[in-house]
Design goal:
It comes from Trypanosoma conorhini. By secondary structure, the protein is α+β, with helices and mostly antiparallel strands. The chain has three domains: 105 residues, Ubiquitin Conjugating Enzyme (Roll), CATH 3.10.110.10; 64 residues; 67 residues. It is built from eight helices and five strands; from the N terminus they run αβββββααααααα.
Length: 277
């Protein structure tokens, strides 16, 4: 068995797609496809194996020609490849991890995405790419960032549209609440006007609107009861007890009741006036 074959078999067990692109007695090129869950995409790497492999380390490159380190992502570079113990599958896995670390949160460009973008470019841009070897790499770097900016702008527009739609839904509710508030305000104004008219409709409220007015009102009531009592006494004296005893007794009882009522009212007046001192 060729010494490379066990490495390739293990590589195929570790990764979803492994294809031999080119193979000669002196070299072999492999295409390895692997999903990067942290970026949400699938990346493709090219693995070059020299005829001296595994004594010589594999060379792993991205499609743009960038060589990726096969050392772990912890930053250690010593003994990245040991011919006796290193495994090709581990080296390729490290290369994929370094690719994800290189691009961070941005999805790296792929041949398919570049082809789609290049198909929409003008001839002058294509000429620049052909004439300037750094233009393609620069474009490959810029494309994911522009895409991220465009996606963020799209999300912002979607959020603005959502807020606008919510405002449209809330507008009828606000109009209804405004109408209810205006109705309550009108009702309150009418109630205030009614309360303001009450003193005019009920003179008694004006008479007791202050302590002095209440004291005067009590004194007036006492005088009124005195006048009523005197009127009853005057009528009582005009009745002949011998001839109209029933009327005399009725007026006498009425006089006693009025005198008692006057006495109670006078006691209230005196007590209230005493409380003011």
């Amino acid at each position: 068995m060729h010494p490379v074959q066990p490495h390739i078999d293990e590589l195929r067990r570790r990764f979803s797609s492994v294809k031999v692109l080119h193979q000669t007695a002196s070299e072999m090129f492999l295409r390895v496809e692997h999903a990067l869950p942290e970026l949400g995409c699938t990346a493709v790497l090219c693995v070059a194996l020299d005829s001296a492999f595994p004594r010589k380390p594999p060379i792993v490159t991205y499609f743009d020609g960038r060589t990726l380190p096969i050392s772990p992502t912890d930053g250690s570079t010593e003994d990245a490849w040991d011919p006796a113990s290193s495994r090709l599958a581990d080296a390729v896995a490290n290369a994929f991890a370094n690719l994800a670390l290189l691009w961070g949160s941005v999805v790296p460009p792929s041949p398919e995405s570049l082809a789609a973008q290049l198909s929409s470019l003008s001839d002058s841009m294509l000429l620049d790419i052909v004439s300037n070897p750094n233009c393609l790499e620069s474009y490959a770097y810029q494309l994911p960032f522009f895409k991220a900016i465009r996606d963020a702008s799209g999300q912002t527009l979607d959020e603005i549209e959502r807020v606008a739609n919510e405002n449209l839904k809330l507008q009828p509710v606000l109009d209804q609440l405004r109408a209810e508030v205006e109705g309550l305000q009108l009702s309150l104004e009418q109630s205030v006007q009614s309360v303001q008219k009450v003193p005019q409709l009920v003179p008694l409220l004006n008479s007791i609107s202050s302590q002095e007015n209440l004291a005067k009102a009590l004194a007036t009531d006492v005088k009124a009861l005195d006048a009523q009592r005197e009127e009853i006494a005057r009528r009582l004296l005009q009745v002949d007890y011998a001839t109209d005893r029933r009327r005399f007794d009725a007026l006498l009882e009425e006089y006693r009741g009025k005198a008692k009522e006057r006495h109670v009212m006078d006691l209230k007046r005196r007590a209230y006036c005493a409380s003011l001192k």
